[in-house]
Amino acid sequence: MKIRHPRARVPVTIGTMESSTTSGGRTRREATRQKLYEAAVTLIAEQGFSATTVDEIAERAGVAKGTVYYNFASKSVLFEELLRHGVGLLTASLRDAAERADREGRGKVDALDAMIRAGLVFIERYPSFTQLYVAELWRTNRAWQSTLMVVRQEAVAVVEGVLRDGVANGEFSDEIDVQLTAAALVGMVLVAALDWQAFQPERSLDDVHAALSRLLQGRVSGHR
Amino acid sequence: MKIRHPRARVPVTIGTMESSTTSGGRTRREATRQKLYEAAVTLIAEQGFSATTVDEIAERAGVAKGTVYYNFASKSVLFEELLRHGVGLLTASLRDAAERADREGRGKVDALDAMIRAGLVFIERYPSFTQLYVAELWRTNRAWQSTLMVVRQEAVAVVEGVLRDGVANGEFSDEIDVQLTAAALVGMVLVAALDWQAFQPERSLDDVHAALSRLLQGRVSGHR
DNA sequence: CTTTTTGAACTGACTGGTCAGTGCAAAAAC
DNA sequence: GTTTTTGCACTGACCAGTCAGTTCAAAAAG
Q1: What ranges are recorded for DNA binding (chains A, B) (predicted)?
Q2: Which entry of A42, A86, B5, B24 is 20 to 30 Å from B141 by CA?
Q3: CA/C1' separation B2–C6 (Å)
């Protein structure tokens, strides 16, 4: 395990708070960071973190290399914040789906189904991010390991919460293993969606959703 | 300025035949390749392909760097053959489970269940390989992409075959989407097992298997 | 049985190239 | 006036792949 002598240069984030806003309301800096995220996510999804160079990221983002280091302390920090950002979006989306189902007074099975759909929508929108997330999730000995752990848990916790509520109100068997079942559900959606994107992208989201719903509700065996 | 000893015989590596066998019956070469696979699989699972150096692999295998290149044309070729080797084991194991269930005249649901167990056994035995496989599967633009595609298809085809047979004999609904359902099942097992290994390795395989069986058979909703 | 030869397998110092990160002055944006 | 971006030269650690040379067990020769 070797670590390059970083000798870190202090990123000048000392500046006063959010500076002026552009017409859109976002700071200029924020817009640059966004462009860098977008460039990094596709490149890293395709090639992996180590095989992707900072020069490539800068070029794809249409920005000078120095800008990358003006905005992020290092390549790994850029990646780490990208992970945080992406999983944050997913978690918010899952939570939203679950709450919506709740507010509409539907059952926990419906909530689960809504979350499956939310997951599919997310993956359809950010396939590269998903790919990269899966590739990194079970790695050990990487700098961003602990960060990843935390955000993963936030996302999975949403699913576990719905399962637990369902057990509590009798909708689900109290013999289910919440943690394992949550992982299995996430895996089901993740892998099915990634396969969908990779091998039959022409299919509709509804189609994929229907197949997963059927599996979830045990309507696989049995006729018709 | 190092001066190398002159005076030497030319190696002339023209030979092609498998040389003598050691006591075990395996050639020495085969044993070395096996050691290199084992070293490479853990390192690459932990750090990824690009972040793993050939020097590390050689060191972990207790072999000189030159030996790696004596046995494999390049780092990627080593990795590619490792993938082929590993997925080959998995496919054989799945096929075996399916055929055993068939021979014993059990239904396709049981065959599926047996394959889930076979998958879990495989992952318990080769967690690093599984991890590395998942990390690489959906990447694009990588040298070994096509190889991976082929072996993946071989493995998934086994699951798809059982599903198709089940639809044919009426055990499964003819409305299921074979391809998607197979992917979802694989994902369910993969992710649940990886989570099991990573976050609660103390649990037994039977335990995990039971949780997945329950999910498969739709015994999640409904009480008891 | 003993000595010599053979060559596949292995070794590790070395090379040529790559890439993260630096430094900084000038320009642009705000 | 301040913040952010640019452009580009520079450094040095790092690493895939090479190759001259060594090892050793088994085959051939004596």
Answers
A1: 53-72
A2: A86
A3: 29
Confidence of residue B204 (pLDDT cuts 50, 70, 90): very high
B44: closest chain A residue by CA = A139
pTM above 0.85, yes or no: yes
Among B14, B38, B72, identify where a domain stops.
B72
Question: How many domains does chain A contain in total?
Answer: 2
Q: Looking at the domain assignment, is residue B2 inside a domain?
A: no
Interatomic CA–C1' length for residue A31 and nucleotide C29, angstroms = 13
CB–CB contacts below 8 A, A to B: 190
- Cα(A47)–Cα(A49) distance, integer angstroms: 7
Print the domain residue range for B183: 75-216
- Assess if residue B68 is contained within a domain: yes
Q: Which residues contact B75 (CB under 8 A, 6 or more apart)?
A: B49, B54, B68
